[in-house]
Amino acid sequence: MARGTIASDEADQDFINAVGFYSWNVAENRVYGDDVIAHVFGLSIEDLSIGMPIDVLVRYIDEGDKQRVAKAIHMAIVDGAAYNAEYSLTHPDGRKVSVRANGRCLRDVDGLPSIYSGTVIVQPALAEPIQISDPLESHCRAALDLASARGHALAARYLSSALNMLTPDLG
Known about the structure:
Blueprint: H1 9-15, E1 19-25, E2 30-33, H2 35-41, H3 45-50, H4 54-58, H5 63-79, E3 83-90, E4 96-107, E5 113-123, H6 135-149, H7 153-166
Antiparallel strand pairs: 1-2, 1-5, 3-4, 4-5
């Protein structure tokens, strides 16, 4: 396992609904990301601080999703439209991870694809429903899902922070 990754079941629970941020320098093919991105894709934070080729990240996307996700990313680069996708991947240690991702490819002064930035939100497994007793927490989770689905990354980040304040034991 790469240094700086987390693999325990308890750590996995800490990452449910966590928002990871990434930036991809398209011209140099280098992806940079935070600890959530490192956790999801089985990389070390050190690897992501120097940048990794996009192929290193997408290789773990499940075969049933890989072509669809690659096409959506390609279209976002070509036309500059927002990218939104849900997909599953198999972590290097064998566990399944479901994510919701969004992003957009920005252009440089010459109109060429330059920086592709976005978020990845770790989704709970379908077989493990989240038990919520606090109505405020329930509303925040619903708002987070809505903000994520609509590609409102900043709102999703604030809502994720609010949920961390409401449930400090979950990360």
